[in-house]
Design brief:
heterodimer, A: about 210 residues, alpha+beta, Butyryl-CoA Dehydrogenase, subunit A, domain 3, four-stranded antiparallel β-sheet, 7 helices, 8 strands, elongated, B: about 230 residues, three-stranded antiparallel β-sheet, two-stranded antiparallel sheet
Amino acid sequence: MEQGLQSCHGCGLLSRPASGAPEGRCPRCDEDLVFRKPDSLQRTLAYLVAAAACYVPANLLPVLTTTTAGGSESDTIMQGVVLLWSPTGWPLSLIVLFASIMIPSAKILTLGYLLITVKRGSIKNNAQRVRLYRMVEIIGRWSMVDVFVDTFTVSLIQLQPLMSVEPGPGLLFFAAVVVLTMLAVESFDPRLIWDSADAKEVQREVQHA
Amino acid sequence: MSSQPHHHSDCNRPLADASVIACLDCDLLQRIPEVPDGASVRCPRCDKELWRHKPDSLNRTFAMTLAALVLYIIANSVPMLGLHAAGREAFTTVVGGAHQLWLDGQQIVSVLVLFAAVISPALQILFLLLIVLGCQLKCPPAWVGMFLRHLHFTRTWSMIEVMLLGVLVALTKIADYATVILGTALFALFALVVLLAAIQSCFDPREVWQRVAWAEPDAQPPVAGTEFSKAKP
């Protein structure tokens, strides 16, 4: 950025903007170029707040409603984890616990931490912070697992009037948490982590000169 | 993407040395060295893998993408799961799962499931196929670059592997109530997940970018080793 060069997120080509143009276009792949993702911090924060807001009903409202001849019963995500816990099913129960409850909350906390440190211009632990970001990027998709579990449970157990399963209102909020946190990750620009360190270095060089 | 007609003025100029890049995760300027097959180049500051030299990338990707296409068609045309209980049988496919959610009033989630488990993987396979087919030409046209640029998006949202884990959990739950029948599509999906991972590890986008015709032909440096001379009037 200090050199006035833009690198392309589509193809990786480094190029120099035409004189006077604030935004450019990649000559190789036609992608619109910017120095940093536009309004990265604000957008990430917006998605994150929305995700945190959905996180509460996602965990409190039922995701599945089972109707049998004896009546109907609603389960939240956590109750689903407990139901799955058995001598043979406990590994899967743990997987769902990780994917549905721990990963979304860890994602929200991690991105919040990254946002705060970038906003405060922290120059510490840059390599660890960018590694944290990559981890969130890779692991995040796995929290969709519960959406698929519920989808196929619902579509298979349709044995009216004996037994049927219907999706509950919590499912929509849970899916929203997953999608919103994925969008938050996409809109965060990891290069911002390094910018304050780079700026301080430039400052120091100026002072030396 | 800009919808305006392309003006030469808003187009960036490339550097003289195309091996100089800025790390996409930390913006460090550096030169990518040539490395032997299988070796990778990492950013010295943030450890991001910038490039891995993958041998015979395009041919292998082509072969595996064709296989993935066949598996994808099988996976979405035959039943994936069946259930046998109380003298009745029920079958479902991936699309059927999304359809049932739609009927139960969860339209938004239904579309999301369809997008992540059916549409994105289809786009991923289609884009890959078009890219490798385009690269069979002596000078791959600029639309190859357009598909390659959007490949990342389809990979982010294509979640077959996550879906399979979900199916596994659902099966364990249901096994308490009824006999579960595994359909052919389930095995096709397993193979598809393995194939997509294999494609991921043998496809080298840098090789395509080095060969593809640029969106802005005037800016393209003459390609070494080819007679492609549209470069400058």
